[in-house]
Amino acid sequence: MTVNPAHTSLWPAPHASGAVRATVHVPGSKSVTNRALVLAALASEPGWLRRPLRSRDTLLMAAALREMGVDIEEGVGPDGTGETWRVLPTGLHGPATVDVGNAGTVMRFLPPVAALADGPVRFDGDPRAYERPLHGVIDALRVLGARIDDDGRGTLPLTVHGGGALDGGPVEIDASSSSQFVSALLLSGPRFNQGVEVRHIGSSLPSLPHIRMTVDMLRAVGAQVDTPESGGEPNVWRVTPGALLGRDLTVEPDLSNAQPFLAAALVTGGKVVIPDWPARTTQPGDRLREIFTEMGGSCELTEYGLEFTGSGAIHGIDVDLSEVGELTPGIAAVAALADSPSTLRGVSHLRLHETDRLAALTKEINELGGDVSETADGLHIRPRRLHGGIFHTYEDHRMATAGAIIGLAVEGVQIENVATTAKTLPDFPDLWTGMLGA
Ligand SMILES: O=C(O)C1=C[C@@H](OP(=O)(O)O)[C@@H](O)[C@H](O)C1
Ligand SMILES: C=C(OP(=O)(O)O)C(=O)O
């Protein structure tokens, strides 16, 4: 966790002079967009994505699939449907070079796709991508019949020597460091000759809603998936081999990226409306309705979207975030402004996210006068009167949005490299100042 000297730009985080009242149209979900792209690329017929997220992570995914021969036409759909991407699957092939950036979804979901391509596919990415775990995918693919050259550390860089097809079958993995290992193997599973049976043998498994999202989206394109929830064994997922359908999918707003805007209502005692909040979803951000209500807000889900209202009071919370780890930075920011202490549990795997999020949150909130300490699996946050200062972001989009939340309540907070929000929400600074009526 080091500060990158290349990022000296400082963004004065706007301070809220009163209760925020706004409607914020949040762009599409990263997790849904990148799964939809992979499934469309593996399908046997063309598919469409409406309102896909256009951000660094999703553009890297699209670029990588194009490198392997998939045709993705970006355009605008008929009236009212907004941006639409048409995906025309073709025979996947190498040689290709994939830049994963620092996108967990790209670095984990694509090596199985590359194993199905004909020819070598080299994977590389940001320096931090070399530190993020990939062993679950690499080791599993080898068991399933793939040939992979790597340096033996279980991380990038690596080359997958695709043979045009993969045996597949049963495999055991330890996915305690990332649910994305499971999702990666399931997404390509229908195209393996024997399908795939993934058995998680680790101590814990984070981000279960993201695995449910994978299963739901696979079923929606015609795959047969057996899961622990559908009566199967605990920690075992089975995908039957078969062709995938092309789909016309409208991408839901990214509910994890709605978090800072909901937090703004909570922190300022205001009201924020997020249009198109889905009535039913696998996105972990949906848990914010419950978590931010416990922290002092109230919400109403209508046909139009989610109306979230702050009461003026912010309460601390004791919560297990293992299923919804990506919400931790935003919850920690709100907790630092609360009227009582908080304990955030179940998120030791965040040490291997975009940055070591537990260390980064502790350091940056404490440098503004806070009192945060790391535990074995999370954070203790004792609210203190905070003061202005520089909030470093360590090339982590969710650190930047967490700093912006604190800046609403604390004058003089400057966010270093706010542009890092481009990973999943390039419009963040404009949406934020728009919300504040600036
Ligand atoms: O599959 C996905 O789309 C994601 C799964 C989670 O990863 P981990 O299980 O590695 O935390 C989550 O944190 C990440 O932001 C997105
Ligand atoms: C952990 C995250 O991303 P990634 O998909 O790179 O793992 C995140 O967006 O919070």
Structural description of this entry:
With 438 residues, the chain is an alpha/beta fold. The chain has 2 domains: 10-27 and 253-435, Enolpyruvate transferase domain (UDP-n-acetylglucosamine1-carboxyvinyl-transferase, Chain, Alpha-beta prism); 30-250, Alpha-beta prism (UDP-n-acetylglucosamine1-carboxyvinyl-transferase, Chain), CATH 3.65.10. Helices cover 29% and strands 23% of the residues. The chain is built from 12 helices and 23 strands. The strands form 6 sheets. Strands 2-15-17-16 form a 4-stranded mixed sheet. A 4-stranded mixed sheet has the order 4-5-3-14, covered by helices on one side. Strands 6-7-9-8 form a 4-stranded mixed sheet, with helices on one face. A hairpin with a 7-residue loop joins strand 8 and strand 9 (158-163). The longest helix is centred in the N-terminal third of the chain and has 13 residues, at 30-42. It is globular, with a radius of gyration of 21 Å. The model has no long low-confidence stretch (mean pLDDT 96). The protein binds shikimate-3-phosphate and phosphoenolpyruvate. Phosphoenolpyruvate binds next to helix 3. Keywords: Amino-acid biosynthesis, Aromatic amino acid biosynthesis, Cytoplasm, Transferase. Residues 17-430 form the Enolpyruvate transferase domain. Pathway: Metabolic intermediate biosynthesis; chorismate biosynthesis; chorismate from D-erythrose 4-phosphate and phosphoenolpyruvate: step 6/7.
Question: Secondary-structure blueprint of this entry?
Answer:
Layout lengths: L9 E3 L8 E3 L6 H13 L4 E4 L5 H12 L3 E6 L6 E6 L7 E4 L4 H13 L1 E7 L10 H9 L3 E4 L7 E6 L5 E5 L6 H9 L7 E5 L7 H13 L4 E2 L9 E4 L8 E3 L8 H10 L2 E5 L12 H7 L2 E5 L3 E6 L7 E3 L7 H8 L6 E4 L11 H11 L3 E4 L4 E4 L6 E3 L5 H13 L3 E4 L11 H8 L3
Parallel strand pairs: 2-15, 3-14, 6-7, 10-11, 18-19, 22-23
Antiparallel strand pairs: 1-23, 3-5, 4-5, 7-9, 8-9, 11-13, 12-13, 15-17, 16-17, 19-21, 20-21
Helix pairs in contact: 1-2, 1-3, 1-6, 3-5, 4-5, 5-6, 7-11, 9-11
Bound molecules: shikimate-3-phosphate (S3P) and phosphoenolpyruvate.
